[in-house]
Amino acid sequence: MKRKDLLLTVLAAVLALTAAIGAAHAYFTTYITARGGYHLLLGKEIVFSETPTSADKTVTIQSDANSGPLYVRVKAIVAAQYADKLAYSGDNWILEDGYYYYTPVLEPGQTADALYLGVRDVLSSALDEEQTEINIIVVYECAPVLFDEDGSPYDYNDPLIWAQTLLEGGAA
Fold first, then answer.
1. Tell me, what CATH number does 107's domain have?
2. Which end of the chain has fewer CB atoms < 10 Å from its terminal CB, N or C?
3. CA distance to 18, 19, 150, per residue, from 5 (Å)
4. Low-confidence residues in the chain, pLDDT < 70
């Protein structure tokens, strides 16, 4: 009798496993293919250029003609001993929160006014013999212009704009 109960138990387990194997087999063998596609443009196209000298750098930024209106900001990084001597100039650029903001909207195909960055009051005698230049690292960001309910653009330095930066880059 025990042998018959054992045989029925094993047969019931095999039957249950056999019934479930179809679902497991389908799970492990299912795949899908797709054809075609769409061109997807992520971000905005801009042209960023720098013209360095020994202690200065000129930065220019131009938006692509197919781009939407953008806000632009730049961060300049120098060695700690020169950080307090970093100066800038350029029409429509303003320094706030460690960033140089281009205050007007950069329209499609437009070039922003040049931003001049430089380390001032450093004599060539202050540079050691191995160092003949001061490296200014520039990181730029651009973001699309956002509009409020009235259709007015947000300010260039609004945190909401920079929380969703689309394009970031830089050059040494």
1. 2.60.40
2. N
3. 20, 21, 80
4. 23-45, 122-132, 164-172
